Amino acid sequence: MSIPASKILFQDVSILDSTGAEPYRGDVLIDHDRIVSVGALAPGAGDGARVIEGRGRTLMSGLCDAHTHFTWNNSGDLDGLAALPVEEHLLFAIESARSYIDSGYTMCLGAASAKDRLDVVCRDAINAGRIPGPHYLANGPEIAVTGGELVKGITWFADGPEEMRKAVRRLIEIGVDQIKLSMTGEEITGTQRAEDTYMSDEEVAAAVTEAHRRGKRVCAHARSAESVKMCVRHGVDIVYHASFTDEEGMDMLEAAKDWIFVAPGVNWLVATLYEAGDFGYPQEAAEAAGYKRELEMATAAMIEMHRRGIRVLPGGDYGFAWTPHGTYARDLQHFVERFEYTPMEAILAATALGGEIMLRPGELGKVQPGYRADLLLVDGDPLADITVLQDKDKLHYIMKDGRFHKETPDQR
């Protein structure tokens, strides 16, 4: 990452500011790590700044992935997540962190780590400037009850309320930012069904109470209708998947929309159903396991959540062979094509809502004075074609905290 000039001026850009306003032409001035002026500059404000000629290209906030796994290692073998030695696994996680920011993602929320401290180590190294990566909130291994795990080798087990409290305390001790509960199954396991709920109310309540008492949030792998309702009842902050949410659960989520987030991880469903055949899981097997039905149910659920104003964010489960790292912006396309979002709404979900889920709504996710200078200069219009954000060659400049992670020399 380059050492910045104290001032940088993006001149004559199309400003997509993530307030919901239509893009407009203007200038954006950066001073150190902050945006100081957007639109028309005061006379002399840009004096001494390094100038980037925008020529009408889109300047927008960096993106957020709300369900990140640095340690998912592009394998088609779930058990391979546990088998990879820790030294190689750390190197892969470092590469994943770089892949996210290479792809224009400046905010990521960790959704589980395959080994105890890998997320924490990566977060700390990013914050110290030792490795490139997004603003990151680290997780630890997910917690499951006996018989309710998705992948045994990457899971901590806790049965009953007291063991849940102890597991939460141990994870907080290793330095995580949030706790992950694995509450339901996943069809690809062949044994754990997505509509089965393995945790009890008492176990979920104990985990959330302990985490919140210590200032940590809780996220949950929760596909079943009952698990979604348990999440709302007991204060789980971030619900992953929520595919089978029923009417009662939808009403509960709507009533809780000021504090709860949903991240469906839709690309996992799409790719597992249609694109995993080359990796040993053909479409016929995926349909037989229930993935076609789940995608249909999840699509209907997310359309309804969007209609009700529930905060739904893109991102999730990238890092398997058929959902490889570096393809993260596919989620935005799915939001538009499957969930009936406009391109603007999809971008707001990935930027402004990203600042909210990262707990920094006043400084991340918008192109506004006072916000951190986490910016993308895009050769194209994402509102006309949301897929442009999947083309890394179109991301001419990537900036985080006022420092260029990527510059395209022939566009200077």
Outline the structure in words.
- Residues 59-403 form the Amidohydrolase-related domain.
- Pfam families: Amidohydro_1.
- This is Imidazolonepropionase-like amidohydrolase.
- The chain has 412 residues and is α/β, with parallel strands linked by helices.
- Helix content is 33%, strand content 21%.
- The protein has 13 helices and 17 strands.
- The protein has helices at 80-83, 86-102, 118-127, 160-174, 201-213, 225-234, 247-255, 266-274, 283-289, 291-308, 330-337, 343-350, 352-357, and strands at 7-16, 24-31, 34-39, 50-53, 58-61, 63-68, 105-110, 135-137, 142-144, 155-157, 178-182, 217-222, 238-241, 261-263, 375-378, 395-400, 403-406.
- The strands form four sheets. Strands 1, 2, 3, 4, 5, 15, 16 and 17 form an eight-stranded mixed β-sheet that branches. Strands 11-12-13-14 form a four-stranded parallel β-sheet. The protein has a three-stranded parallel β-sheet with strand order 6-7-8.
- The longest helix is centred in the last third of the chain and has 18 residues, at 291-308.
- The radius of gyration is 21 Å and the shape is globular.
- The two termini are 17 Å apart.
